[in-house]
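REQUEST ID: PR-0412
SUBMITTED BY: lab tech R.K.
PRIORITY: routine
TASK: structure prediction, single protein chain
INPUT:
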Amino acid sequence: ARWMKSGEFERHLRRVTRKYQQRRDHAVQLLSQEPIFDFDIPDGGMALWLRITNEKISAQQLVVKAKEQGIYLQHEGDFQLSAEFNSDSYLRIGFASMDEKKFAQGISLIKSLI
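STATUS: complete
OUTPUT:
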């Protein structure tokens, strides 16, 4: 309560919001150069939903390959209640917890798996 009353909480929110927005902008800039993905820029949040543009590539299989390389990804099937709605072409990639260099390395590894 003292932390919030002192105003430190609001300062913390402004600081992390700026940091996450910078990381989002970097992710968007980097991924915009990749024709293998299509995506919408989110207004907020800490992750991007990427559509794999090559319809022959399974998002679920890519997640399995990535896991073997130590990369944690989520595919749309993780979020579907019914398999009939799963197009198997979307990945959810978080950007908030990584600095720009690590995010770029991760994208490079994902590209190499594709």
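NOTES: The mean pLDDT is 92.
REVIEWED BY: pending
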